[in-house]
Design goal:
Structural class: alpha+beta
Order of helices and strands: HEEEEEEEEHHHHEHH
Number of helices: 7
Strand content: 15-25%
CATH architecture of the largest domain: 2-Layer Sandwich
Helix content: 55-70%
Number of strands: 9
CATH superfamily of the largest domain: Band 7 domain
Radius of gyration: 53 Å
Shape: rod-shaped
CATH class of the largest domain: Alpha Beta
Distance between the termini: 182 Å
CATH topology of the largest domain: Tetrahydropterin Synthase, Chain A
Largest sheet: 4 strands, antiparallel
Amino acid sequence: MRSNIQSLVIGIVLLGLAVIASSLFTVKNWERGLLFRFGQFQGQEIQPGLNYRIPLMNTFKIYDTRIQSLDSNPESFLTVNKEEILVDSFVKWKIKDLQKFYKAVRTEENAENRLEQKINNSLKEQIAKRTTEKVVAGDRSEIMSVVQKALDLEAIEIGVEVVDVRLKRVDLADQIQSNVYSRMRSERKRIANESRAQGEEKAIAIEASAQRTEVELIAEAEKKAQLIRGEADALATKVFADSFGQDVEFYDFYRSLNAYRETFNSSGDLIVLDPNSDFFKHFNSQVK
């Protein structure tokens, strides 16, 4: 009898321990949980740490609130010129409002399906408006800006936050890749030729303007030089006239000396004249 009682007590203790063990559970710091009563969500959110539930009555579901990565498979899209390109994208996201998240999508898989569908729809809409060249080389940042806004609106509806969204790769179909690059090279060459032509036109205009300015400056300088030279000659003539007018005979003698100097400035010079000519008149006269 006594052994039966001991066995019963031990069984009750073990059952109690099992009940306590099944009632307690731990939520890690990077996790959040939801508590359910008979399978129905009652709006109670479980915080990190040691938590308690009533067995058989309460169940719980734990969610990871760290940043998750959604790496989509490459998708095919058509540009405005009906050329096929392959786009590979990824999204970084995390749960922000757990209760809204549960009511909207329930699971992480459903949330990623919603985000993937939204990014594909947005990319399809944006790429369909642009040429292949624009998608590949020109408007990628603008496209991603529009996609980011669309994802942010979708994220609010399902209680998550989109941390980052990027295009990893944009590939062209093999049959159109060479044609696209050829058109891009032709376009860049056309732009380069236009820029070069505009530069040459500006250079010609600048050179013509410089030459015109040079001619105008030289003409103006020559005009001023002639005016100065004329004023100087007039002043010199006046000075000579005033100086030699005071003694006409000396002025005549001075002019004769200059004529001799100019005529006999070399030892080989020879001139035949009558000694009584006016050219030698001062040789036979005395200066008073």
